[in-house]
Write a structure and sequence with these properties.
The radius of gyration is 23 Å and the shape is globular. It has helices spanning 45-62, 67-83, 85-96, 100-120, 159-171, 184-197, 212-221, 234-245, 269-281, 301-314, 333-348, 378-381, 397-405, 420-429, and strands at 13-15, 18-20, 25-29, 36-41, 127-129, 137-144, 147-151, 174-178, 204-206, 225-231, 250-254, 259-263, 291-297, 352-355, 359-360, 364-365, 368-371, 388-394, 412-416, 434-437, 456-457, 470-477. The termini are far apart. The strands form six sheets. The protein has a seven-stranded mixed beta sheet, with helices on both faces. A six-stranded mixed beta sheet has the order 9-8-7-10-11-21, with helices on both faces. The chain is 38% helix and 21% strand. Bound molecules: succinic acid. Succinic acid binds at residues 155-156, 231, 254, 287-289, 443, 449.
Length: 480
């Protein structure tokens, strides 16, 4: 693969500031055509322990730096990410599949966390609390929690790393990262830029591995790891939570979603269609905040569906590197099989597919529109994670709130309408951690990303994002 900065194509593990080639390797393939991009180091428990030890040593140095010194190194890393955005984007498209403009967008989004938290590093303020007794004073300080184990997903191979690592580094923590085995190259490219930015050895460690359970077990059971931050499926999140419980580790969990997208009959329908396209087909439907269930009020249903159908038919599917492509390949065959199975179940229970519905040659799935759905179908309960727009009808506000909340997930929800009182009521009633009101685009560095219910806990981004990497200590001063 040709990049302008060929140094970004790294294939070894990154431990204690060094590239470590392991005995075994595994292939990383392009989801567009299955071709092998590179053989990458396959880390095991031994490498994970080494990385944790390195991070523990580096913590002594990194946490002792002034916030301003940490901030300067982080800003350099941010600038390098922007300077190399085209190459990083290309690498991301090749290993993950999303269209190049979207991939470059992810690099910029990811870099924005580094910039934001480089600033926030300087604002880790404590408190002075009025004492409860005449001779007492109370002060509060915040301290970095220690070594952080970060386990990140394939759907955002770059931004989900920076969204965890940037607040951790800003707080003074050091990190051991296990990127997804499907997309380790973007992670390793970030490590290369981290060395150029001047991070001391051991502050950032990256362990590509085909043995996620082995690495996960070491991260959750090694007492030197003080915090686990995970983005991925609810199934794996529950496993990591159980494993972390033995040592009562601090944990952040960004898990699955089942986002409702509600359109009330007073909405701007064209805006709602555009918002729906944006949140449904981003990354071929493979994000945790992608619209999963589209609820349309009965009297605007046909108009909305006609307009949505038009847009879906216009989508260009193909190689993410090709100009104009909007929907890239799916990450693997299992993702395609899951979507086929969801549609099969829905159709067997009365659903009607009006557009698409099939896998395509290669690793693609047709942008699909399916209607006549109901809550008894699997597609209502499962996270689709594919380019399938699933449309339901509703009559009343109460009915749609009940349907929207009828899920164990609670990550993102969206709705369109104009009545301000209804907007307030619906926002309060939806049991989700993030609400998009008249927008399908909610992800930004400056807002607290995160869910409730089985979508997890902990917040990433914004001023709240730092808290997950800090311990609070209070000092009670007596005899004053
Ligand atoms: C995710 O799918 O987990 C992240 C999506 C985003 O940051 O917008």
């Amino acid at each position: 693969m040709k990049l302008n900065n060929q140094n970004l194509l790294q294939t070894s593990a990154f431990i204690n500031g060094e590239w470590i080639a392991t005995e075994n390797s595994f292939p990383v393939n392009n989801p567009f055509d299955g071709s092998e991009i590179a053989q990458v180091s396959d880390c095991n428990k031994k490498h994970c322990t080494l990385a944790i030890n390195a991070a523990k040593e580096a913590f002594k140095i990194w946490s002792s730096f002034t916030a301003s010194k940490r901030s300067k190194i982080m800003k350099k890393w941010f600038q390098l990410q922007l300077q190399n955005a085209k190459d990083l984007g290309k690498l991301l498209t090749i290993e993950q599949g999303k269209p190049l403009p979207e991939a470059i967008g992810e690099i910029k989004y990811g870099a924005s966390f580094v910039e934001w938290f480089a600033e926030e590093a300087k604002r880790v303020y404590g408190d002075v609390i009025p004492g409860h007794m005449k001779d007492k004073r109370i002060t509060v300080i915040k301290q970095p929690i220690g070594v952080v184990g970060a386990i990140t997903p394939w759907n955002f191979p770059s931004a989900m790393i920076t969204r965890k690592v940037a607040p951790a580094l800003a707080a003074g923590c050091t990190v051991v990262i296990k990127p997804s085995e499907w997309t380790p190259l973007s992670a390793l490219a970030l490590a290369q830029l981290a060395t150029e930015a001047g991070f001391p050895p051991g502050v950032i460690n990256i362990l590509p591995s085909m043995k996620p359970e082995e690495i996960g077990t070491e991260l959750t059971s090694n007492p030197d790891v003080k915090k686990i931050s995970f983005t991925g499926s609810t199934r794996v999140g529950k496993l990591l939570l159980k494993q972390s419980a033995d040592q009562v580790k601090k944990v952040s969990m960004e898990l699955g979603g089942n986002a409702p997208f509600i359109v009330f009959d007073d909405a701007d329908i064209d805006a709602a269609v555009n918002g729906c396209m944006e949140t449904k087909f981003r990354n071929a439907g493979q994000t945790c905040v992608c619209t999963n269930r589209i609820f349309i009020q009965h009297n605007i249903h046909d108009e909305f569906v006609d307009k949505l159908s038009q847009k879906i038919k216009e989508l260009k599917v193909g190689n993410g590197l090709e100009e104009g492509v909007q929907v890239g390949p799916m990450i693997n065959k299992a993702a395609i099989a899951k979507d086929e199975q969801l549609l099969e179940d829905a159709v067997s229970k009365g659903a009607e597919i009006s557009i698409g519905g099939n896998k395509m040659e290669g690793q693609f799935f047709e942008p699909t529109l399916v209607g006549k759905l109901n809550p008894e179908m699997e597609i209502f309960k499962a996270e689709i994670f594919g380019p399938i727009a699933a449309v339901y009808q509703f009559e009343t506000e109460e009915e749609v709130i009940n349907m929207a909340n009828d899920t164990n997930f609670g990550l993102a929800a969206y709705f369109y309408g104009r009545d301000y009182a209804k907007i307030w009521r619906v926002s309060e009633a939806l049991e989700f951690g993030m609400i998009g009101i008249n927008t399908g685009s909610i992800s930004t560095t400056v807002a607290p990303f995160g869910g409730i219910k089985e979508s997890g806990f902990g917040r990433e981004g914004s001023k709240y994002g730092l808290d997950d990497y800090l311990n609070i200590k209070y000092m009670c001063w007596g005899g004053i």
